[in-house]
Amino acid sequence: MASIYKRATKAQLEPEASDESDMSDSSSSSSGTVRGDEDLAEDEDLKPITPFSSSPPPSNQQAEAAELRKLKQIPTELRNRILMLTSRGVSFRHRHLLTDLSSFLPHSYRDTKLDTKSSNNYNSALNSLADLHNCNYVFFLEARKNAQDLYLWLAKAPNGPTLKFHVGNVHTMAELGFGGNVLKGGRGLTVFDKSFDEQLCVGGDENKALIREMLRGVFCVPSKGVRGLKPFIDRVVGIYGLDGKIWIRVYEIREGSKDSTEDKLAGMDELATGIKLVEVGPRLVLTPIVILEGSFGGPVIFENKMYVSPNMVRREARMKKQGRYAQRTFDKTDRTRKIKDLGLNTGAERKRSAVDNRRLFG
Fold first, then answer.
1. CA-to-CA distance for 174 and 157, rounded, in angstroms?
2. DSSP 80-91
3. 120: DSSP letter
4. What is the three-class DSSP state of 164?
5. What residue segments make up the domains of the chain, in order of their start?
6. pTM to 2 decimals?
7. pLDDT tens across 301-338, in order?
C-alpha cells in the first residue's frame, strides 16, 4: 500500500511542476527579464562542440590583428640605418668628405675601407656587410684613377635599387671654413627645390621620384630609435638641380633678434622673424650615371646618355695640348724654310749688291 501511495503522489506532483515552469517562462518573456550568466553557461555547455574546426580561435586572430596594427603604426624611417664606407685609394679630401657626412647623420654606421680589387665583388661584399651591421642603405664612395675620379654608389640592401653618381666639386667643412655650426646628433630638414624637378633630366618622373626617395632615406634622420639623437632641428639640407646635376648644400638654422647689428645690416624688415640660414658645408655635386634594379647589380633601369666620363675630358685636354704643340712645331719649321729661301740665314755670308758702300768706295 505504501508503494502505491508514493506512485500516486509522484504522478500528481509532476503536472503541477510543469505548469509552474510554463508560467514562469511566460512571465519572464512578458516582463522582459534577461537570463542570468549561469543559464547562458549551461546553454553553451549543452551546445555540440566540433573537435576539428578549420578557423583559429578568436584569441589568435586578435593577437595577429594587434601585431599588424602595431607594424602599420611604425614609420618606415625608423628602420633606416646607413652603412658608410670608402674603397681603397681615396684621397684625404674624399676621406674628410665622408667624415663630415657621417657626423651629420647620427643614424649612420661608418665602416673601414672596402678591400677589394674588382667591382664585380660589390654585390656580395657590400650586401653582407649591410646585413652584418643591420643596415638597409649603403653609401659607398669608390675612387678610381689614383683618386682622380670619385663615384658614389647609393643602394638599398638587399633587394635594390642602386644609384651610381659621379661626385665632383667636392669641398669639405675644413676647407670652406664657414661660420655655421650645428649640434652633433641633431636632426635636419631635407628640402628639394623646384629646380630638382625642372632641371634634372633622368628620363622620366618615375626616375626622379626614385632618386628623391633614395636621397630622402639617407639625409632624413629618424625621430626615434637612434643612439645619441638629440631632439633639435637645427639644419637644412638643400638639394637642387642644375645642368642635369644634383647640387647638395647644408645650412644651419640660426635664430636671432631683429635688433641685432647683423640683421640691421642685412636690411631685415619689421615683419621678419629673425631666422636665417648660414652655410655649414660640405659641398658636392652629383651627376647621375646609371640606375640598377638590384643591389649593386641587375637590369639597367636608366642610363644617362649625356654623361661624359672624366677620362674623355682628360683625353680632350691632352689632344688640345698636343694640337698646340703641333702648331708651334709647324710654325717653327715654316719660319726656318722662309729664312732659308730669302737668304737671311745668319750663318751664311750675305751677297753684296751693286750699290753696296764697300763695293763703291772700296
1. 32
2. --EEEEEBTT--
3. G
4. strand
5. 76-313
6. 0.68
7. 999 998 999 999 899 888 888 888 888 888 888 888 88
